[in-house]
Write a structure and sequence with these properties.
By secondary structure, the chain is an alpha+beta fold. Helices cover 61% and strands 8% of the residues. The protein has two domains: 22-67 and 76-223 and 292-321; 226-290, no CATH class. The protein starts with 21 loop residues before the first helix and ends with a helix.
């Protein structure tokens, strides 16, 4: 008598239906550690930010703010510094520890070969991985950026960092989500090219550092600079206190510009002689203002998202045409 089962045993129980199926189920099972970590950051990060904001407001109000000028007060800013450092490091951490191993790990451990021998195409499988990881990264970064911006904007005049510092620019508004997506995509691309986890992580770390240097230089090019001319002997106008200095000169009455340090001589007499010799009468200050920040951030975020789209298209094209 044959013992082969030709149909599903009838147990009377209705088979459980999974909420996720196919590649999505596989991706969430395979990367549940990364997804849960991002979920934890999206929940615990805002709680930490709200707590530190409450502490700062208590200290400021106890000192009489906003009725009293407390801009120079020395309050404990360790928590502020730690949060800013953590948010600033988030894009790099995502690139190295989430992006780089995402596909390189599958290649190294043989998961890629196993999955692609099934009925799912390589392109569909990788698209599912990217959709889940990008979605989790985007939600986490948007939540953290929104909550931190809610903290920083009302307290900007007394905050230990101004808008023109790279730290604040990169972690407020749309820039943090765009940076996180771009560097994650860069890490994934590096993993596809290198195909080994540790070398891909090392290469991504270097690439992220190099991009950070480039991005810091790029920020001042995201808006048209403004120029203010004021008399040489006058104090700097108050409107420049919150401005980002791009360049500075001294100028003569006929509009000729000289380097700001031209007449910075060792003695006052020599300095006065230099000023008289060149006919210098004005300070010329090139700058960016705070009211340009939002436009600069959206333009920068747009460029980063365009870069993310290009890297993502390259990854999908490569894995669909070449074996992993």
């Amino acid at each position: 008598m044959s013992t082969t089962l030709t149909e599903t045993p009838r147990t009377g129980d209705t088979p459980k239906r999974r909420l996720l199926r196919g590649p999505s189920w596989l991706v969430t099972r395979q990367h549940r550690g990364a997804l849960l970590t991002l979920l934890g950051a999206a929940v615990l990060g805002p709680i930490w930010i709200v707590y530190e904001r409450s502490r700062m407001k208590d200290v400021l109000e106890a000192a009489g703010w906003p009725d009293k000028n407390v801009m120079s007060m020395d309050f404990d800013s360790d928590g502020v510094n730690l949060i800013i450092s953590a948010l600033g490091a988030l894009p790099l951490l995502l690139a190295v520890f989430v992006g780089a191993p995402l596909i390189a790990g599958d290649k190294e451990h043989g998961t890629a070969q196993l999955v692609t021998t099934q009925s799912v195409s390589r392109g569909r499988w990788v698209a599912a991985k990217l959709a889940w990881i990008y979605g989790a990264v985007l939600v986490t970064a948007v939540v953290l950026s929104a909550v931190f911006t809610w903290w920083w904007k009302p307290l900007r005049p007394v905050f230990p960092y101004d808008w023109s510092s790279g730290s604040i620019f990169d972690i407020t508004g749309p820039v943090l989500p765009a940076l996180c997506l771009f560097l994650t995509a860069a890490g994934i691309t590096m993993g596809v090219l290198v195909r080994r986890v540790l070398p891909a992580m090392a290469a991504t770390l270097f690439l992220s550092w190099a991009f950070g240097v480039f991005w810091d230089e790029m920020i001042v090019k995201l808006a048209s600079t403004r120029t203010l001319v004021y008399p040489l002997q006058d104090d700097m106008p108050a409107r420049l206190n919150d401005a980002l200095e791009v360049d500075r000169w001294v100028g003569s009455a006929d509009g000729h510009l000289y380097g700001w340090g031209l007449c910075a001589k060792t003695t006052e007499k020599a300095s006065d002689a230099c000023i008289k010799e060149h006919g210098i009468v004005n300070n010329v200050y090139e700058y960016l203002e705070y009211n340009q920040m939002a436009g600069m951030q959206w333009l920068g975020a747009g460029l980063l998202l365009a870069g993310t789209a290009v890297l993502t298209a390259f990854v999908l094209l490569r894995v669909s045409r070449r074996p992993l």
